[in-house]
């Protein structure tokens, strides 16, 4: 029996079973239950502009997957930053019940606990695949839930923008001295590193960055990478594009849910939301490298963007500062210490594996291909 015949036969068999059962009492009871199940509607706020590539569309994907997998019994409506609450107000909106869910970057909540940084990115931290491994299999999710529940929220990975670029600069950065007095949009612990270098870190949501760069409020900005940076047009204001970035080697984005709302969901709806978040996370890991490569070609060949790298001197100093900045965070409270210890153990494991796998492979690939 070939595959087509088998599938056709299976379909007929399933239809026959359904027809036979339709005359039975069990089916007569079950059918009305399916038809009359109350639709659960949830409102999601985000920290992104509406339908912004990769970020805003990731939030939309979560909603679409939830709606589709639940066959309409779970409806998620997405609101961009500013439509219900401002970008940096999303966490409080969900914690207090003004909204049910958020899609964001957890380091935006570092004012509540510095431990949130570890669930987005820390300077010289883990790459996208490494942080994904830690959260899923290394105890990260359990610590994240413990942290979030203390504020009335539970969160999951729900996209990752991959390795981020170092940023857009109006002037070249040739030495450590060039960081002094530099006003740069850079959130999270990366901002702490910049301050130690003598610069001024400014926290701005995505929609606020370009006007600030245009009017001179800031001298430089990081955002994500070529795909998202091209969408905002930063190249018009800052011609020097530095990479790679030290501050966000793999930026995990999150789906946060009010803890009471989560606990009140049926188990199948909880499973659907988890699956939707994972599916969105996985698709973004494929989407970002593809779109970044295409956008980089446009930036360089159509807009004459000048690519630059930080000096070895700068990297060494950034490395020293980064380790101290991240270590200092661990002293905030016992839970943050546990998150830090778990994260660092996972980073060590990841480094050992990468040392004998990806790193030498990339080196040899470049040597063999000659580019």
What does this 3D model show about the protein?
With 371 residues, the protein is of the alpha/beta class. The N and C termini lie far apart (51 Å). Strand 1, helix 3 and strand 2 form a beta-alpha-beta unit. The longest helix has 35 residues. The N terminus is likely disordered. The protein is globular and about 65 Å long. The strands form two sheets. A six-stranded mixed beta sheet has the order 7-6-8-5-9-11. Strands 2-1-3-10-4 form a five-stranded mixed beta sheet. The protein contains 14 helices and eleven strands. The chain has two domains: 163 residues, 3-Layer(aba) Sandwich (D-Maltodextrin-Binding Protein, domain 2), CATH 3.40.190.170; 120 residues, D-Maltodextrin-Binding Protein, domain 2 (3-Layer(aba) Sandwich), CATH 3.40.190.10. It is 52% helix and 13% strand. This is TRAP transporter substrate-binding protein. Keywords: Signal. Pfam families: DctP.
């Amino acid at each position: 029996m070939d595959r087509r015949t088998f599938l056709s036969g299976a379909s007929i068999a399933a239809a026959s079973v359904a027809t036979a059962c339709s005359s039975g009492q069990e089916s007569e009871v079950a059918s009305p239950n399916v038809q009359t199940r109350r639709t659960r509607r949830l409102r999601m706020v985000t920290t992104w502009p509406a339908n912004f590539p990769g970020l805003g569309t990731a939030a939309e994907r979560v909603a679409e997957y939830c709606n589709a997998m639940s066959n309409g019994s779970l409806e998620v409506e997405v609101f961009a930053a500013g439509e219900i609450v401002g970008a940096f107000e999303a966490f409080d909106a969900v914690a207090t019940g003004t909204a049910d869910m958020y899609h964001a970057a957890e380091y935006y909540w570092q004012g509540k606990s510095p431990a949130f940084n570890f669930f987005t990115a820390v300077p010289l931290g883990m790459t996208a695949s490494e942080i994904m491994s830690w959260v899923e299999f290394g105890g990260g999710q359990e610590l994240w839930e413990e942290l979030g529940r203390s504020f009335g929220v539970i969160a999951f990975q729900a996209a990752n923008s991959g390795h981020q670029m170092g940023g857009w600069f109006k002037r070249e950065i040739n030495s450590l001295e060039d960081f002094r007095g530099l006003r740069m949009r850079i959130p999270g612990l990366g901002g702490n590193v910049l301050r130690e270098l003598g610069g001024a870190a400014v926290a701005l949501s995505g929609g606020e960055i370009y006007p600030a760069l245009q009017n001179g409020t800031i001298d430089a900005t990081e955002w994500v990478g070529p795909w998202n940076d091209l969408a905002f047009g930063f190249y018009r204001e800052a011609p020097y594009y530095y990479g790679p970035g030290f501050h966000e080697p793999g930026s995990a984005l999150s789906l946060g849910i009010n803890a009471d709302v989560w606990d009140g969901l049926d188990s199948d709806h909880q499973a659907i939301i988890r699956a939707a978040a994972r599916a969105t996370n996985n698709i973004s890991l494929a989407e970002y490298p593809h779109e970044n490569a295409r956008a980089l070609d446009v930036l360089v060949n159509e807009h004459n963007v000048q690519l630059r790298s930080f000096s070895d001197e700068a990297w060494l100093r950034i490395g020293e500062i980064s380790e101290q900045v991240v270590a200092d965070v661990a002293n905030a409270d016992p839970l943050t210490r546990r998150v830090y210890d778990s994260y660092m153990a996972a980073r060590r494991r990841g480094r050992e594996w990468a040392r004998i796998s990806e790193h030498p492979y990339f080196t040899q690939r470049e040597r063999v291909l000659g580019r």
